[in-house]
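During the first year of the project, the team set up a workflow for recording each protein of interest as an amino acid sequence followed immediately by a discrete structure-token representation. This format lets reviewers and collaborators read both layers of information side by side without switching files. As required by the reporting guidelines, we include two representative entries from the current panel. The first entry is reproduced here exactly as it appears in our internal archive.
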Amino acid sequence: MRRHPYQGIGDHQFWNRAVTWAPPGGLDPVVHTRFRITPDDSIGTMGSCFAQHLARHLARSGIDYFVPEAAPAGMDAAEAARRQYGVFSARYGNVYTVRQAVQLVRRAYGDVVPEEEPWARDDVLVDPFRPTVEPDGFADVAALEADRASHLAATRRVFEESRVLVFTLGLTEAWRARADGSVFATAPGVNGGEWDPDRYEFVNFDVDDVRADLVEWCDLVRSVNPTVRILLTVSPVPLIATYEDRHVLASTTWSKSVLRIAAEEAYRRFDFVDYFPSYELISSASSPRNHFAPDLREVEDRGVQHVMRTFTRHYLDGLPWQAAPAVPAPTASSAPSAPEAVVCDEETIAAAIEASR
């Protein structure tokens, strides 16, 4: 018998054994993990809309979901959700791009002070860097700046005190100020402010940009928290719109590919970084079932459950994955259901278009 290097490798390395015959709801691409999370580990979260599903799961699982910017005492749950308390560990809103994440760390520690003034929205002001977290806006600059100072203080605690920090990478497209390169979650004019091409420009960060930014972000976080472990994921949610003059499907594929490459390189570079394949679990054409809603963008609850069940199985200690109450296993008769509402700044693009008609 002739010998060859594929003799004796694992079943998970063969497509027909690991993917073709995976049972419904049983596709599991996680082979090794670099760390486990115990009930004593405080976990911080940030990133795109899909990261909110993981945050909710952590909060329900008995794990220490770290939220230093919590709702004020006496505020009811509905109002707290409306004002984005607990959506992420701090009220930074969606951090879609890695450049935003680097900017957030540097703003939190005063290394960067953007020139951008508060944006006007009707009769109130909004924070350009988190324009949806205070839905009713701020009455004046003093109120905005006081809230921002409190928010950045809580953000510093996220970076300094989290034992595990989960960052879900979402987009490569962004809008930035020409004056100093400050990056925003949404384009000026969508959630406040006014569009002015002399002041703002579109940017689509390429693979070299994102790789360098992610390395810088990991280094920055480790500089204030030397023992933190970082878990990266890539959101499976497609772009709601692209500003590139090409099909949105092509832009989505390009963007997610860039983010996935950057995450892989960070994983290879840093031994404290791990990667969880939420993108692969949902978006792969090889998935045993389609996890997207009829709009082919939102992830159905059954898909979210599959991701959370897989995450629990491989990362959470002290909580048997079979017993996780927030992620019941799918059954043959279970009908697709819509996921719990998530706060998604990107969604406001569609609302802004409708409002302008």
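The second entry, processed by the same pipeline in the following quarter, appears below.
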Amino acid sequence: YMLAALVVIGSIYVAFRSFGSNMKDSIISVGRNPLAKASIQSMVVLNTVLILLVSVEGLFVGLLILFVQL
């Protein structure tokens, strides 16, 4: 149970640590360069999708650890 919990929490932490920091900088960048708003918003959407994918994969691996017997 502890290993599964560590995998899930670790994957969510890595996802937000890697891709979440870019979102704060993106909001600042839109204020500095409004002409690049579309490309900056597309990067925010991409980062959000990557956060969701990494988190869901970590949850899936955690569930595999719990329910698949070796």
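For the second entry, the following points were noted during internal review. The chain is about 90% helix and 0% strand. The radius of gyration is 16 Å. Both points are flagged for discussion at the upcoming steering committee meeting.
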